[in-house]
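A quick aside before the break. I want you to see a complete sequence-to-structure record at least once, exactly as it would be stored in a machine-readable document. Don't worry about memorizing anything.
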Amino acid sequence: MPKVGMQPIRRQQLIEATLSAVNELGFAETSIQQIAQRAGVSTGIISHYFKGKNGLIEATMRYLLQQLAQSLTDKQAEVGNDPEQRLMAIVQANFAASQTNQAAMKVWLAFWANSLHQPELHRLQQINHHRLHSNIKFEFLKVFDAKRAEKAAQGLAALIDGFWLRGALMNEEMNLSIPIEICQQFIRNQFE
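That is the input. The structure line, written in tokens, reads:
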């Protein structure tokens, strides 16, 4: 009989083990056995909680997305209602350490690649894409008409995604100052 209250602890252990395994071995080479070994549990626990590797990747992505959402909430709470500052909070949240450490970046890349072939991951990717776009557009709509806000939102989202992808593919610690500075300049240019 399972111990009461262990499920959240076990799930978190397995998510952290997944981040570690994908970081070290890559998604394709990461097996359920390796994840279970890192977490100190049996492979049956993974099947019980996640129904397999794909379910575990989905849960790991949900975890990263929750961290992103929390970071954004925290950063926007610090800046009040100024659209320019709130847009910078979006940029900073997307480049937060929880999203740009090597393990997270490798899981994000695996997620993006696998979302093209797995409906549940594709759904999560679409939610994330729409959330980023709508958060950015909402702030630009405070100042611009719909057409201009849409163009500005697409531009800033492309900068965030582009810098993030370039950083992830470098396979080394990302220097965040340059992408953040360029995104900030883009935002300022929109308001001039």
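Two observations worth writing down. The chain has a mean pLDDT of 92. Residues 84 and 187 are 7 Å apart (CA to CA). We'll return to this after the break.
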